[in-house]
Amino acid sequence: MKGLFKTTLELLATGFRIGTIPYAPGTLASAAAGLIFYFFITSYFSFIGFLFFLIFSYFIGEKLYEVTMGSEKDAQRFVWDEFTGMWISCFPLFFFDNQLDWLLISFLIFRYLDIRKPGLIGRIDKKQSSRAVMLDDALSGLITAFLVTAIYLLFIFSN
What we know:
Number of helices: 7
Largest sheet: none
Order of helices and strands: HHHHHHH
């Protein structure tokens, strides 16, 4: 049973093995998270349910990293942080029309922030802990959610 449990945790940590793909695993994981949001989360979660899911996803990610990656600093194959960050980016989409368009915009902004790591995101990324691994992506997701909401409101009120 211990082997099956460890394998299940590694499947989650690597985004069902997306993290083991040698090219752009973070981008592929973010895209997969966006598709999961669009096809499943919006169908099965309420706004409040999704909020609880995000909180759970963040804290489970910290433990998941500790158990599966150990002391390895920001292991490339660990992509649960991208899943969580992308889902945070999608949070405002619950209230938007044309979700698919805004999902693409959220994806592009999130990936930009996650790759470039400006300001505080970069400072957090330099720390060596499971919390830092999750927090830099969560912060990228929060900033993305804010920016997408601002762009959406500007778009709505300008028309």
